[in-house]
Amino acid sequence: MTFAQVKFDSGAQGEKHPADESNSVSGLYHELDHWQLNTGGKTIHAKRMDGRFRTIKYFTALTWLGFFLIPYLRWEDRQAVLFDIPGRQFHIFGLTVLPQDFWMLSLTLLFLAITLFAITAFAGRIFCGYFCFQTVWTDAYTWIEQKLEGNPTRRHKLDQEPWGIRKIGIKISKHALWLLIALLTGLSFAAWFADSFQLWHDYFSLQANVAAWIVLALFTGGTYVFAGFMREQVCFWLCPYARIQGVMSDRQTIMPTYDFIRGEPRGKFLKIGRLDGGKTRGDCIECFQCVAVCPTGVDIRVGQQEGCITCGLCIDACNTVMDKIARPRGLIRYASLDAIEGKPQKNILQRPRMVIYLAIMSLALSGIVYGLTHLGALKLQVIHGRQPLFVRLSDGAIQNRYDIKVLNKTGADLLVKISAAGVPGQQIMGADVPLLAQHGRISAYTVYVRVPHENLSSESAPIAFRVESLADGKINATYNSVFMSPRT
Ligand code: SF4
Ligand code: SF4
């Protein structure tokens, strides 16, 4: 039996969807093959049940504390992590990334995108279920809703009650808390792009610039609307990741899956295993608890589908039911379709798409590691002057001109000295006094190198330039160039 057959066995086509009958999950559903489309006709009030995956979800949500706290960490005299867009530089603890290093940012984005593809191919939308901003914030918002308005049944009743003092008080409290979280979210987001302490001061003294106000308004409003009102509709209709996940997963992808072989034919709980009209009943007792807890209103028994964010909450719900009726856990479990149908689960290296993803990830990661280990605090570029390549001075010495560019990636201006080595008897002109290298910028200088003609034995001799901070000799960079001379 396959999922397509389950659809017929369960009589889904043309029938009212089971979720419509649940007292806690409602909405307008249409069926397209075995996919459910939730068009958000009514608010989903999902039930909260304890369980292993609910606990994991709470812990993974805690990782978002970093979003709120990291902007307040300091590193030397500045913010530890600062994406300084006006200054065109990113600071990540001791590392400063300038526009010249943005090839590394591209590689990082490529690495993250392919990692997401690989994770989706391996375990579906697990990122959505446990880490995504939208689902984590929605979970926090509905937690507040449950604390103030009660369980799903009470929430439905409250929604239908006429407006009175009690209902107004509850709704105002809920929306005030939602807005407070939204405001903190907006402030925290903006704090990644400007000095966080200064930013708070600027906002509260109404001195923040227009861009800061726009960012705050967009993120506060967006959080309030997306997490408070649109909820699962964002996952269904706005999120591009949801739209393309179908091409990233396959029958080997491990995600919450209903074991239809064990669960069908389903029926109300009388006695499991009882012969019923000559047919042995499956383990699913049609309690709809898996549907009632689903934050996107999906009935996973109908098959894997777009709306499933792989959160595993239906697994917790069904396991609780199985415990109560003394049946083994795992009627819904993390498994691939092939595994459910008794076919072998391939390892990662037997799946061509995983091999390709891993190869791209390895290449991107190698590039990032190379970049990070070769990111000096100073970068030196030397361009040999043309037209003329050299000049002969009145004393017979040969002189070459060099245009020197020094990129200072540290957070402060530096006094630097430039030197050259490689040609005997050379003299460097134009670098006799320390030069100023402004932080975050390329500083340009012109220097001349003179060499007595008798010291030159060929038309071209290697010459190495070095730039070095006067304050700290470990901050330096070198560049290899050539010294040109006439035929001897
Ligand atoms: S929770 Fe389990 S037993 Fe209840 S309807 Fe869902 S799959 Fe069937
Ligand atoms: S079907 Fe299960 S795993 Fe998928 S979103 Fe609903 S509760 Fe989460």
Layout of secondary structure:
Elements (H helix, E strand, L loop, with lengths): L2 H7 L8 H4 L7 E4 L2 E4 L13 H11 L2 H5 L4 E2 L2 E2 L1 E4 L4 E4 L2 E3 L4 H22 L2 H5 L2 H17 L2 H9 L4 H26 L5 H9 L5 H21 L1 H7 L1 H9 L6 E4 L1 H4 L11 E2 L2 E2 L8 H4 L20 H12 L7 E4 L1 H4 L11 H22 L4 E7 L6 E2 L5 E11 L5 E8 L5 E3 L5 E3 L4 E10 L8 E10 L6 E9 L4
Give your account of this protein's structure.
The protein has helices at 3-9, 18-21, 52-62, 65-69, 102-123, 126-130, 133-149, 152-160, 165-190, 196-204, 210-230, 232-238, 240-248, 260-263, 289-292, 313-324, 337-340, 352-373, and strands at residues 29-32, 35-38, 74-75, 78-79, 81-84, 89-92, 95-97, 255-258, 275-276, 279-280, 332-335, 378-384, 391-392, 398-408, 414-421, 427-429, 435-437, 442-451, 460-469, 476-484. The protein is of the alpha+beta class and 488 residues long. It folds into two domains: 1-63 and 98-161 and 231-375, no CATH class; 378-484, Sandwich (Immunoglobulin-like). The strands form seven sheets. Strands 12, 13, 14, 16 and 18 form a five-stranded antiparallel beta sheet that branches. The chain has a four-stranded antiparallel beta sheet with strand order 17-15-19-20, with no helix packed on it. Strands 5-6-7 form a three-stranded antiparallel beta sheet, with no helix packed on it. Helix 7 crosses helix 11 and helix 9 (165-190) packs across helix 11. The protein is elongated and about 110 Å long. The protein starts with a helix and ends with a strand. Mean pLDDT is 85; it is low at 1-35. Residues 256, 293-294, 296, 298, 300, 308-314 line the site of one iron/sulfur cluster.
